[in-house]
């Protein structure tokens, strides 16, 4: 009888503390973004097009909140994307071409807006819990802004860390990211988030 009582008490206590660690997807996303100041990660990006062809690239990603981003693509071709808080710069090294546009307009409804903006998630996105799959907790974000280029963003988290990201654009194409070596709140050099177009390079204004 005493042993049974202890077992029942243990189960009650286990049930009481379970919510502290068994967080669902939206809760893990909130925990991931809480107190986030910087982020660095390797990534593999895959674009799945309507003809079922997939195009892959990889590189390294840097973030400093609020509003600073840097994507370095190393393969199959070198490209650099820098968001300096005012404008987004795209430098295609192979084509020797630089394009730029307003950061505020370019980031509407994108994962970059979610990661770099310190506003509550619900201000820009409707948040849906998609449950678990492949050992990961999935969240769907539906952009509230009509100008968004994406119809749906899906994030996969594990132990409050971002593992994967899927973006479905308004043309039905899916872009997938897998993150590795993710490091948060490390000191990052401010020079990472500045860009000066090289001389003798084609410069294209707002896209």
From TrEMBL:
Statement: the UniProt record of this protein carries the keyword Repeat: no
CDD domains with a match to the protein in the record: LolA
Subcellular localization(s) per the UniProt record: Periplasm
Keyword Cytoplasm attributed: no
Gene Ontology biological-process entries: lipoprotein localization to outer membrane; lipoprotein transport
InterPro entries, per the entry: LolA/LolB/LppX, OM_lipoprot_carrier_LolA-like, OM_lipoprot_carrier_LolA_Pbac
Keyword terms, alphabetized: Chaperone, Lipoprotein, Periplasm, Protein transport, Signal, Transport
Main location: periplasm
Gene Ontology CC annotation, any one: periplasmic space
First and last residue of the signal peptide: 1-22
Role this protein plays: Participates in the translocation of lipoproteins from the inner membrane to the outer membrane. Only forms a complex with a lipoprotein if the residue after the N-terminal Cys is not an aspartate (The Asp acts as a targeting signal to indicate that the lipoprotein should stay in the inner membrane).
PANTHER family (UniProt xref): OUTER-MEMBRANE LIPOPROTEIN CARRIER PROTEIN
HAMAP family for this protein: LolA
Similarity comment text for this entry: Belongs to the LolA family.
Self-association and partners: Monomer.
Protein's name according to its UniProt entry: Outer-membrane lipoprotein carrier protein
Organism: Candidatus Thiodiazotropha endolucinida
